[in-house]
Write a structure and sequence with these properties.
three-stranded antiparallel sheet, Nucleotidyltransferase, domain 5, six-stranded mixed sheet, 4 domains, GIY-YIG endonuclease, 23% strand, 13 helices
Length: 425
């Protein structure tokens, strides 16, 4: 049956090919009801869609196309970069079932720096919005980030209070009394000094500790030579705290620079994606994403992953390193360069230091997938056992538990807990 459906799908697609332009653009596969199943982009729309219809290329015989797609819509753009942007917008609009959605991203913490304020503050957030402020991250380890932020609050006396508290303060708070805030809410604070402290805190968050340590060491020596011993002692304590953080960051690139490294591993119907975050030559974190494998080629997976990854106000590095080439590398580089305001390179390294970073990302992806497959196997065994004990004919794939509570018929409250494939939904 699936084979017949696939043949029918390929037939209608082949008939459409002559009318499809050989231009950059976006294509939308739809089902019989017109619902968008998948959104993709291409430098050459006809060539890309021909690859889906080509009977000789099994890689492109994806299940959703063979079984569900009944139509394709194409939208021509002026350039490959415009196609990339349009693809992003359409995915956000339609939320297609078979496109990569980095839903795990919401669980990662980022750092917001309210640089629009006269007296900015730094705090953790899970929401990145286009509000003109600065965002760093996301960070995979929430505990590690909170520890770093606590260190920043201890050594950089910046405000931590909300805007409402800040505006209504009439006298310095406890944070000022214990020297954790300069008290700009009510005191006459040097704005230049405050910004200098803020920039130092940002460099620490970005992993650029070497230049920060050197700067603090120089300031400490100058203060000591001028016999400002109390100031020198504060700088010394600040220096020691930063060096302690720097010890936890592995040097992976002796040339320095900021890089994001992308790699994929696929097996058993799952895809594991790893993104290594290298800042100033140091590995400061990594992010993991996983999704169902719909048999798309690696080039399309990587292309979609990188495009989704840099949505919103995310930091854009000097270089993006990929484990495999993608057709849209030039468009991605142009898009990221425009977003950053400086040149960004998208590379597929074959040797040297950059290649070692890619291999490290690939190894992390393989390990993450092994762990996920083990978890999946354990969940499957549990579901089979639940089905056996309940006398079910088939293994339960979705379990919903409903509870309704009331007080003598009044104040009725209901709740529902659901597990999909053994995972809380």
């Amino acid at each position: 049956m699936a084979e017949q459906a696939g043949t029918a799908a390929i037939g209608w697609l082949e008939q459409r090919l002559p009318s499809i332009p050989r231009r950059p653009g976006v294509y939308l596969f739809k089902d019989k009801r017109g619902k968008v199943l998948y959104v993709g982009k291409a430098k050459d729309l006809r060539a890309r869609l021909r690859s889906y219809a080509g009977a000789g290329d099994g890689r492109y015989h994806v299940r959703f196309l063979m079984e569900r797609a009944a139509d394709v819509e194409t939208l021509v753009t002026a350039s490959d970069t415009e196609a990339l942007i349009l693809e992003n917008n359409l995915i956000k609009q339609y939320r297609p079932r078979y496109n990569i959605r980095l839903k795990d991203d919401k669980s990662y913490l980022s750092v917001k720096i309210t640089t629009k304020d006269r007296w900015p503050r730094i705090y953790a957030t899970r929401h990145i919005v286009r509000d003109g402020n600065t965002y760093l991250g996301p960070y995979a380890s929430a505990s590690g980030l909170r520890e770093t932020l606590e260190t920043i609050r201890r050594i950089f006396p910046l405000r931590t209070c909300s805007d409402t508290v800040f505006r209504n303060r009439t006298r310095p708070c406890l944070e000022y009394q214990i020297r954790r805030c300069l008290g700009p809410c009510v005191l006459d604070v040097d704005e230049t000094e405050y910004r200098r402290l803020l920039e130092a805190a940002i460099r620490l968050l970005e992993g650029k500790t070497d230049e920060l340590v050197e700067q603090l060491r120089r300031q400490m020596m100058e203060a000591a030579q001028a016999e400002r011993f109390e100031e020198a002692a504060r700088l010394r304590d600040r220096l020691f705290a930063i060096e302690k953080i720097a010890e936890k960051q592995a040097v992976v690139s002796h040339g320095g620079g900021d890089r994001d490294v992308f790699a994929l591993c696929r097996e058993g119907g799952l895809v594991e994606a790893q993104v290594l975050l290298v800042r100033a030559g140091k590995l400061v974190g990594h992010l993991s994403y996983h999704f169902e494998d719909f048999e798309l080629p690696e080039e399309e997976l990587l292309s979609s992953l990188t495009a989704r990854f840099y949505e919103g106000e995310r930091f854009v590095p000097d270089e993006v390193l990929l484990a495999a080439p993608i057709d849209s590398a030039g468009a991605l580089a142009s898009y990221l360069s425009a977003k950053r305001g400086r040149t960004v390179r998208v590379l597929v390294p074959r040797r040297g230091e950059r290649r070692r970073l890619v291999e490290l990302a690939m190894e992390n992806a393989r390990q993450g997938l092994r762990e996920r497959l083990d978890d999946s196997s354990r969940r499957e065994r549990v579901l089979v056992e639940i089905g056996r004990r309940l006398g079910l004919r088939d293994t339960p794939k979705r379990i919903e538990c409903v509870d309704v509570s009331h007080a003598h018929g009044e104040a009725v409250v209901a709740s529902l807990v659901a597990f999909d494939e053994g995972v809380p939904d």
